[in-house]
Structures are given as C-alpha cells and as structure tokens.
Design goal:
Blueprint (H helix, E strand, L loop, with lengths): L1 E2 H7 L11 E5 L3 E6 L20 H20 L5 E11 L11 E10 L3 E10 L2 E12 L9
Antiparallel strand pairs: 1-2, 2-3, 3-5, 4-7, 5-6, 6-7
C-alpha cells in the first residue's frame, strides 16, 4: 500500500493536484486507489462550489499514471504517458463533491505495447458506480536516433 507522498513521488502531479491518497492494491494488470479529495473545498478541479463528476476522469488518469510508474519500475516501461482517447464513458451523476466517504478508483490494463496502452477504468463511491470508461494512453517512447 502506498500513501499520498509515495504517489506524488511517482507522478508529475504536485500539491493539491495529486488527487489520490493511497494505493490499496496493484499488480501487472490492475490498480485500486482511494481518495477523499473530492470533498476538499480546495480541490483544484472545482468549478465554483462543486466538483463535476467528469473530473473523475482525472482521478482515473492519475491511477493509470501510478500503475504505469509502478509497472515501469518492475518491467522497464516508458516513464510518461499522454491520455489521447476516451471511449464508452458512462457517468451516473452530475457531481462528486457531495458524495460521502471515499472514492475508489480502479484501472485495469486491457492491452498495450511499447507505444500505447488501453485501460478500463471505474470510480465508485461505496456500492455506487459513478463513472466508467476506457482510455487510450500513448507512451513517451524515445525513437531510435532521436535526441533526448
């Protein structure tokens, strides 16, 4: 299990923009993270006095980034990725900030290669699924002969 400080050391998101508070579990294909930052009045994604539910995509993207970083440490994968596509996004509510308790953010690597990876993701609050979908991430791969 990783805490917020360990997560922040793995991804480029700093300060309040690091939305995840802990990693509960992970393996080569899947990660499960938890956060209560959706209720924080200082959440940088808030629009006025609310946090739109579609901001949950950023929570999922950060879970994917943590998974990629943890996997890179084990398998030597690239260290950066860019979210390029979302598919089949389903959102069951308008906002996140009024949800009690913690958000559970899961991401599962469906397929991938050295250049891209596809994740299935979901956000839950207790027994309620709030958001789900698929994301394609293009990995930052150094091309042969290219200058860093």
């Amino acid at each position: 299990m990783l805490d917020r400080a360990a997560i922040a050391a793995l991804i480029p998101h700093a300060g309040a923009m690091c939305l995840l508070e802990r990693v509960d579990s992970w393996n080569a294909e899947r990660i499960v993270c938890v956060s209560g930052t959706h209720r924080d009045a200082a959440n940088p994604l808030r629009a006025g006095d609310l946090l739109p539910a579609l901001c949950g995509i950023e929570y999922a993207a950060q879970a994917m980034a943590v998974h990629g970083a943890l996997s890179a440490a084990v398998e030597g994968r690239p260290s950066a990725g860019y979210l390029v596509s979302l598919r089949n996004v389903q959102c069951s509510r308008a906002r996140l900030d009024d949800l009690p308790g913690e958000l559970t953010v899961s991401a599962e690597r469906v397929m991938g290669d050295a250049a891209r990876v596809i994740y299935q993701f979901a956000l839950r609050a207790g027994d309620q699924q709030v958001l789900s979908g698929r994301a394609t991430v293009v990995l930052d791969v150094q091309m042969p002969g290219a200058q860093p």
